[in-house]
Specification:
By secondary structure, the chain is mostly helical. Helix content is about 65%, strand content about 0%. The chain has helices at about 1-10, 15-25, 35-40, 50-60, 70-75, 80-95, 100-105, 115-125, 135-150, 155-160, 170-180, 185-195. Helix 1 packs antiparallel against helix 2. The radius of gyration is 17 Å and the shape is globular. The relative contact order is 0.08. The model has no long low-confidence stretch (mean pLDDT about 85).
């Protein structure tokens, strides 16, 4: 109920109220995933502080915010370094589900601002299987799993990754997915196989 009231405040004409509401929803993490579309709408605000607050909140929602990756990635081209940092950090928090935005993040590695470069580097480490020495087939598998994850379909994630997970990230996602559905036996078996 509180989240619904906060989401209503995102429509305020007062930028400070919208910033506060976005920050509060972001603090709720994945519990605020249902309000991601309203937060994403703020990415088009004329006020950079509102856009930053929305980006940060979407990042805190995590992988469920992957549908709004294109809007976040568009902010990477902003002339405002703080906005670029917020967008990079948000994509990093979305994690492997945002792997398709790795090329945009890689471009920031040449930015003149050190904080922009550091944010991009950190985000790449979280989203890019390529940074972990992963094959293109594994990258495609992770992208398929990310789509499943964005829909909240754990069974789809398992179907995408079972027998196809090669990277540490893919295996970790599969193990966590098994655990999230209460299949500790499969998670344990996979961990034992991986550690051999």
């Amino acid at each position: 109920r509180i989240a619904t009231q906060l989401a209503e405040l995102l429509n305020s004409s007062n930028d400070n109220v919208r910033i506060g509401a976005a920050a509060a929803l972001g603090q709720m993490g994945g519990l605020a995933a249902g309000f991601a579309p309203q937060l994403a709408a703020l990415l088009d605000s004329s006020d950079d502080n509102v856009r930053m607050a929305a980006a940060e909140a979407l990042g805190r929602i995590g992988p469920a915010a992957v549908s709004f990756g294109p809007q976040l990635a568009a902010l990477l081209d902003s002339s405002n370094d703080n906005l670029r940092i917020a967008a990079a950090e948000a994509l990093g928090r979305v994690g492997p589900a945002a792997v398709r935005f790795a090329p945009q993040l890689e471009r920031l590695l040449g930015a003149s601002n050190d904080r922009v470069r550091q944010s991009a580097k950190s985000a790449l480490g979280r989203v890019s299987p390529g940074a972990m020495g992963v094959s293109s087939n594994d990258a495609k598998t992770m992208e398929l799993a990310a789509g499943c994850l964005a829909r909240g379909d754990n069974e789809c994630v398992i179907r995408a990754l079972e027998g196809n997970a090669r990277s540490e990230r893919a295996l970790g996602l599969l193990i966590e997915t098994y655990r999230s559905i209460g299949d500790e036996a499969s998670a344990k078996t996979l961990m034992e196989t991986y550690l051999k």
